[in-house]
């Protein structure tokens, strides 16, 4: 399940501009500052890789990274920074809707949730939107080094509360993984989880 090589493939302004969907892919989604870039860099053990998506304007793009020449990690624009908070998730989903609903090879969305803060409405909205649309989802809790119990088997209060607050409209309760990009905690579990979902 280890990552041997990663290549940046392209940045796409719309779903229809994405690379040909002939390989399994995972979309990395989450609020701005949740630790998206840090997680990608920690997974691929490259400090600078996700910086390619940090250039001004790139946040509006869908970035494809090819891993081991066989599957894609996809960096999507963060949400939660629009001026009108309630409009933010709608703007964001309008942009990415085409991608989520039409990408045949999407194995799962990795929805990043900051374990060091209480459940945020915008994250619940995002999780529930994905659930309603039957898009396979894994919760990846980030910054677990900052919470008591984040390294243990018993989930922290924020994590438990988040799971209680999401709608029960999933066919199956989404899997969840605790991580820290600072300590590397959860990295191997997440890589193994992704390889099991891909079937190789
Ligand atoms: P945007 O690119 O703005 O959308 O943010 P992002 O989701 O890519 O977050 P980024 O990886 O840039 O991390 C945001 C901040 O959180 C940085 O200061 C990171 O150092 C910090 N951070 C990220 N992951 C962790 C973690 O696992 N633990 C701790 N303690 N800090 C983290
Ligand atoms: Mg980033």
Automatic annotation (TrEMBL):
Keywords assigned by UniProt, alphabetized: GTP-binding, Magnesium, Metal-binding, Nucleotide-binding
Family under the similarity heading: Belongs to the TRAFAC class TrmE-Era-EngA-EngB-Septin-like GTPase superfamily. EngB GTPase family.
Organism, scientific name: Linum tenue
Cofactor(s) for this UniProt protein: Mg(2+)
GO MF terms held by the record: GTP binding; metal ion binding
Domain EngB-type G: 22-200
Protein name: EngB-type G domain-containing protein
């Amino acid at each position: 399940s280890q990552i041997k090589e990663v290549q940046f493939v392209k940045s796409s302004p719309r779903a229809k501009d994405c690379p040909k969907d002939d390989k399994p892919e995972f979309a990395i989604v989450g609020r701005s500052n949740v630790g998206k870039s840090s997680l990608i860099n920690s997974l691929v053990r490259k400090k600078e890789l996700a910086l390619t998506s940090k250039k001004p304007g790139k946040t509006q793009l869908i970035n494809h990274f090819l891993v081991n020449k066989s599957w894609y990690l996809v960096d999507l624009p963060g949400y939660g920074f629009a001026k009108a908070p309630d409009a933010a998730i709608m703007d964001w989903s309008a942009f990415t809707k085409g991608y989520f609903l039409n990408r045949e090879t999407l194995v799962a969305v990795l929805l990043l949730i900051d374990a060091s803060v209480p459940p945020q409405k915008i994250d619940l909205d995002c999780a529930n939107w994905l659930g309603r649309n039957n898009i396979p989802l894994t919760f990846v809790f980030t910054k677990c080094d900052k919470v008591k119990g984040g390294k243990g088997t018993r989930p922290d209060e924020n994590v438990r509360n988040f799971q209680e607050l999401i709608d029960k409209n999933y066919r199956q309760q989404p899997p969840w993984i605790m991580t820290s990009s600072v300590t590397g905690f959860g990295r191997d579990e997440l890589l193994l989880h992704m390889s099991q979902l891909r079937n190789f």
